Amino acid sequence: MRPFRLFFALVLPLLAACATPPPASQPEALAAYRETNDPLEPTNRVLYEVSNDIADVSLSPAARAYRWALPEPVRNSVANVLSNLGSPIRFANDVMQTKSRRSGDTLMRFLINSTIGIGGIFDIAGGWGYPAHPSDFGMTLAVWGVPAGPYLFLPLLGPSDPRDTVGFGVDTAGNPVRALGSGPAIIAFNWATLGTTTVSAYAQNLPAINEVKRTALDPYATFRSLYRQHRQAQIEAAKQGRTATIPVWFSLPPKQPSAEQPSAKQPSE
Amino acid sequence: MPTRRSLILLVPLLLVAGRARAADETDEATQFVKQTGDAILKVVNGPGTAAEKRALFTRIVDDAVDVDGVARFALGRFWGVATPAQRQTYLSLFRQYLVFNVTGRLNQYKGATFTIDRAEPMNGDVAVSTTIHTPSNPPTDMQWMVSFASGRPQIVDLVAEGTSLRVTQRSDYASVITRNGTENVQALLDALRQQITRLEGSGSG
Residues B46, B53: contact at Cβ < 8 Å? Predict the structure, then answer.
């Protein structure tokens, strides 16, 4: 009886809850609704609350303990090792995005940091002019022209969209460590890496997350906006082959004609 | 009556003049960001209670930031919906909120230093890119958007790791205004007032 009730309590709202779009008589409101592109907002909000509650009792204490127990340089080294383990899949994505410079950066980083950087503990390559950059299959799909789709808030994984959800799945399945076999040691290693990656990333972002929760009027909408902007900037950087992040809306052409054009035209009239 | 030839000569001249002006502005914006950043870090790393620091910081914000411009941007299309009285209230609440919002973030920058990487014109403004080095976190990228619309350099936006402060603010506010399926600017004003009281009460920031 119990599991059934739980099932209905959890699954039914997911199927039922959809935001109602504004009527066509309000074109501005409708345009804003489309831009927000969050038709599952009621469901997403529930999942956001639940994930927050879970994180408050599990991930947050773990991240705080992690920050308390390990000094900054050690935490950075852990993050470096984890990042280095992700290099092969990042390289594969750089190649699939056909970005030669970024592929070269990732390859050099992996070669240098795995050897001279002692298994990735030290980011030697970064100082040698091979800076780190994000690259995953969600970005690859974006570079290929696949649209992001509606906003999703996934339990445990957080803000996402269909494109990034597929990307996460492909990256996880494509992890070369899996190719080594499926013995208990490999499984244990994978779980340990996943756990450490989660805690390490959460610990790194904890101050920023707390700050948003403290100051935002609507943290859900704020995280949604931050996630979209951050992703868009990463994708734009990948598309243009740049290694620094530059937000897309600054690269758009200005709507108004520039000052030179009218002044150059005027004498002819 | 100018001839076609003189016109053709005029275009590159105007372009050169425009570019020279842009170059002046990028230099000035770089200087401005350097000064403002130094002033902010002096407050962050200096002595004084949170309230004293906030007072000092409010002065820097009023001086260096186009607060009303950012406020109007953050309200987006609802600026047109708001009554004149609501606009007045909003502008004053926004200023207080901005100071609390940004001072809260500043605590993360204790002991920080920053380097200016480059400055480039962007959509009529100048984007000054900096890298912030903090003792407890990896270095982060921060872009300062500097506008010359008022005749003197003013900050109109901060972009951290690709996320714009004013765009994020606008999403937050729009969500509060449209939450119940209606467009209610008063809901935002109430929420802002509540949040400011709460942030004041929490003592940090």
Answer: yes
Find the closest chain A residue to B197 by CA distance.
A215
Predicted pLDDT of residue A262: 39
Q: Which H or E run contains B156?
A: strand B154-160
CB A64 within 8 A of CB A206: yes
The pTM assigned to this predicted structure is 0.82
Q: Report the candidate in A151, A176, A173, A175 with the shortest Cα–Cα distance to residue A163.
A: A151
- Output the pLDDT for position A127: 84
Minimal C-alpha gap between B162 and chain A (Å): 5
Q: How far apart are CA A221 and CA A223, in angstroms?
A: 6
The residue of B97, B137, B148, B171 whose CB has the most chain A CBs within 10 angstroms, and thus the best one to mutate to test that interface, is B171
Q: In this predicted structure, what is the pLDDT of residue A253?
A: 52
pLDDT by residue (tens digit) across B78-119?
999 999 999 999 999 999 998 888 777 777 788 899 999 999
- Give the Cα separation of A172 and A137 in Å (integer): 10
Say whether B199 and A215 touch across the interface (CB within 8 A).
Answer: yes
- Return residues 61-100 of A near B (CB < 8 Å): 72, 76, 79
Given the cut 0.90, state whether the ipTM is greater than it.
Answer: no
Q: Which residues contact A128 (CB under 8 A, 6 or more apart)?
A: A108, A112
β-pair type (B125-134, B137-147)? antiparallel
